[in-house]
Design brief:
Mean pLDDT: 84
Number of helices: 15
Radius of gyration: 19 Å
Structural class: mainly alpha
Largest sheet: none
Number of strands: 0
Oligomer: single chain
Distance between the termini: 17 Å
Shape: globular
Strand content: under 5%
């Protein structure tokens, strides 16, 4: 990988990791559903004018607005209100092994033994995390697991959908999720507009950072790198996101560390790495980087 691309990858995962810190700041001022509602509004305003879709694509984008826009993002933000940034980032990482299991059950994809072992290790990490005081109640863990499940289900929908450009996907999921999340906020939260108008810089920073830096800029850079390099080469770097989120949570927010949190995080990340990283492909990239890169469309 070219050195400038390596630093771009590190920038992207750092932006994603710091997004957890920004959201925790914003939750001091703005209710979680209202915050994700505003994130979707900002993303839609910026991207929709430049993104067009077909009627066939719309059939898949509508369910994605619920599974990805509401289940994944909204439940993540609500869960983060009751736990720390690092713990939330680690639990949601389970979306990857969940997606693999769902693909095996629904799409009949085959899993190798090493992948099954990795998935089992990931879920054992959640068992370890249940002993951490950073998860104050079982329902908080259920919210975060539901968020991970929403991400996993969304992957299956995208896999079955017609080709959609990544930023177009981001734009229209955000736009179509606005009424869903808005209704949920109206039904379950109160004084949203007043709290939004009276929010400090932290609240508005969280909205703009989450929408522009994390959703638009970071994903644009990531997608451009995927055009240059195989996903198996980039996947290990994405696993740095929960690691950096834990570190940033401790350094910036003063989050606590304990044995349950450390061991659970390590098991989840290790298990996910085992299940998704293709070591054979990585060795091939290491030996024949130029030949491999030319084969990538």
């Amino acid at each position: 990988m070219a050195l400038r691309h390596f630093f771009l990858v590190l920038m992207v995962v750092s932006v994603w990791a710091f997004n957890n810190v920004a959201v925790k700041w914003g939750l001091h001022d703005i209710p979680p559903l209202m915050m994700i509602f505003m994130r979707f509004v900002v993303v839609a305003i910026v991207l929709i004018p430049f993104c067009r879709i077909t009627r066939d694509q719309l059939r898949f984008l509508i369910p994605l607005a619920f599974t990805f826009g509401f289940m994944h993002f909204s439940l993540l933000f609500v869960g983060m209100k009751f736990t720390d940034a690092g713990t939330a980032a680690v639990v949601v990482q389970l979306g990857t092994p969940m997606a693999m299991l769902l693909a095996m059950l629904i799409l009949k994809d085959k899993l190798k033994l090493v992948q099954i072992v990795g998935i089992a290790i990931s879920f054992s990490g959640v068992v370890a995390l249940t002993g951490s005081p950073t998860i104050p109640s079982w329902w908080v863990l259920c919210l975060l697991l539901s968020s991970a499940a929403g991400w996993a289900i969304s992957n299956l929908i995208v896999k079955k959908s017609p080709p959609i450009k990544p930023l177009t996907l981001t734009a229209w999921i955000s736009f179509l999720a606005i009424p869903i999340v808005g209704a949920a906020s109206w039904l379950t939260e109160s004084n949203q507009v007043e709290l939004l108008l009276n929010a400090s810089w932290r609240g508005w920073f969280a909205i703009l950072y989450s929408a522009i830096a994390s959703s638009i800029i970071a994903y644009s850079v990531w997608y451009s790198l995927l055009k240059k390099y195989n996903v198996n080469l980039l996947m290990p770097y994405s696993l740095l996101t929960p690691v950096l989120a834990v570190i940033m949570g401790v350094l910036v927010l003063g989050d606590s560390m304990n044995l349950f949190k450390v061991s659970g995080a390590l098991l989840v990340i290790l298990g996910t790495a085992i299940s998704v990283i293709n070591l054979r492909n990585l060795r091939m990239h290491a030996r024949f980087p130029r030949i491999t890169r030319r084969k990538i469309p």
